[in-house]
C-alpha cells in the first residue's frame, strides 16, 4: 500500500458527524469513493492507495457506517444519504475543486448518480459499481432476510469470515480479513459487532431510479462482476442502452462478484484507469 498513511477527518452535517479518509494529495484531480450498505470508507483501501498517485482520493463513511455517527431513527432516508455526498463535496471544495470523479459501489452508486444529476456542474465522470436502478432486487431481498437472521454479536472472526464468503466473495483471505477489520469493531463483552447502525437496514429506502438514470449527462462507466447475483448482465445492458452510446461504457470482470474491487483489485483499477483515460 502506498505511503504515507491516509488522514482521518470529520465534519458535521445536519447534526450528524461524518467521517472520511483523505488519501491526498491536495491539488490533484478529485475522486470521491462511496461504499455500499454495511461497508465503510476503509473497504476501498487498496483501490484508494492505487489511485492516489493521480487523484486526490477521499473515501466517505456514510452516516451510520464505519466511523461516522449513527444518525438515529428517521435519518436514513434516501435523500439523507444523497445529502451527505453533497455535504462532503462542499466541505472539500476548497481543495477538491469542481471536477469530480464519483465512484459508487452498490447503494453508494445510487447516491452517486442522483447527486451527479442534481449537480452536473460538479461531476466530471461517474463509475457505478455493481448496482441497478430497480426498486426491488431479489439478491437484496435475500441479503435483508439473512441480516434478520444474524446474531447481534458474533462470537469470533470465523463466523464473520464465513458470512462474507457466503455472499459470495472471491477476494484473497488477506483482503477478506481487511474487509472484516473495516466493517466490524470489538464488542465490550467480547466478540465482534458490525460498525453499521442496525437502523440502516431497518430504514433502508430503495426507490425506483430508472427515470433518474436516464437523466445522467456526464461520462459513465458501469462495472459488473460476472459472478454477481445483484446486478445481472441483462440489467447492466439495459442500463447501458438507456444512455447515449458515446456517454456510457459497460465492463464485466471475470472471477468477480458484487465486491469486485476486492475480488479482482488489479482488473478493477485497470478498468477505471482505461475509462478515465478516454476522457482526456
Explained architecture:
- There is one protein chain.
- The chain has 280 residues and is α/β, with parallel strands linked by helices.
- The chain has a single domain, classed as Alpha/Beta hydrolase fold, catalytic domain (Rossmann fold), CATH 3.40.50.
- The protein is 37% helix and 21% strand.
- The protein has eleven helices and ten strands.
- It has helices spanning 45-51, 78-96, 107-118, 138-148, 157-165, 173-183, 198-202, 210-213, 233-241, 260-263, 265-277; strands at residues 7-13, 16-24, 30-34, 56-61, 100-105, 123-129, 184-186, 192-194, 220-225, 248-253.
- The longest helix is centred in the N-terminal third of the chain and has 19 residues, at 78-96.
- The two termini are 27 Å apart.
- The relative contact order is 0.15.
- For the residues shown, what is the average pLDDT? 93
The beta-strand count equals 10
Alpha-beta content class = alpha/beta
The dominant shape is: globular
CATH topology tier name: Rossmann fold
- Series of H and E elements: EEEHEHEHEHHHEEHHEHEHH
CATH architecture: 3-Layer(aba) Sandwich
Helix content: 25-40%
How widely separated are the two ends?
A: 27 Å
Beta-strand residue fraction: 15-25%
CATH class: Alpha Beta
Amino acid at each position: 500500500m502506498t505511503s504515507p498513511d491516509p488522514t482521518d477527518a470529520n465534519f458535521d452535517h445536519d447534526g450528524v458527524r461524518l467521517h472520511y479518509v483523505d488519501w491526498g494529495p491536495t491539488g490533484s484531480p478529485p475522486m470521491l469513493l462511496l461504499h455500499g450498505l454495511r461497508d465503510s470508507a476503509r473497504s476501498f483501501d487498496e483501490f484508494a492507495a492505487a489511485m492516489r498517485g493521480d487523484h486526490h482520493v477521499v473515501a466517505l463513511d456514510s452516516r451510520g457506517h464505519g466511523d461516522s455517527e449513527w444518525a438515529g431513527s428517521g435519518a436514513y432516508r434516501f435523500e439523507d444519504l444523497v445529502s451527505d455526498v453533497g455535504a462532503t463535496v462542499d466541505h472539500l471544495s476548497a481543495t477538491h475543486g469542481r471536477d469530480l470523479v464519483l465512484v459508487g459501489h452498490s447503494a453508494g452508486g445510487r447516491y452517486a448518480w442522483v447527486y451527479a444529476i442534481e449537480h452536473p456542474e460538479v461531476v466530471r465522470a461517474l463509475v457505478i459499481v455493481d448496482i441497478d436502478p430497480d426498486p426491488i432486487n431479489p439478491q437484496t431481498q435475500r441479503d435483508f432476510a439473512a441480516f434478520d437472521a444474524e446474531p447481534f454479536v458474533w462470537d469470533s472472526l470465523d463466523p464473520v469470515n464465513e458470512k462474507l464468503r457466503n455472499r459470495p466473495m472471491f477476494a484473497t483471505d488477506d483482503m477478506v480479513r481487511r474487509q472484516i477489520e473495516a466493517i466490524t469493531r470489538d464488542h465490550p463483552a467480547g466478540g465482534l459487532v458490525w460498525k453499521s447502525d442496525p437502523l440502516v437496514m431497518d430504514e433502508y429506502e430503495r426507490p425506483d431510479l430508472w427515470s433518474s438514470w436516464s437523466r445522467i449527462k456526464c461520462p459513465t462507466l458501469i462495472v459488473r462482476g460476472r459472478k454477481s447475483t445483484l446486478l445481472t448482465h441483462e440489467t447492466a445492458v439495459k442500463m447501458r442502452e438507456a444512455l447515449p452510446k458515446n456517454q456510457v461504457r459497460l465492463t464485466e470482470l471475470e472471477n468477480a462478484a458484487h465486491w469486485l474491487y476486492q475480488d479482482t483489485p488489479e482488473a478493477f483499477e485497470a478498468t477505471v484507469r482505461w475509462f478515465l483515460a478516454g476522457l482526456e
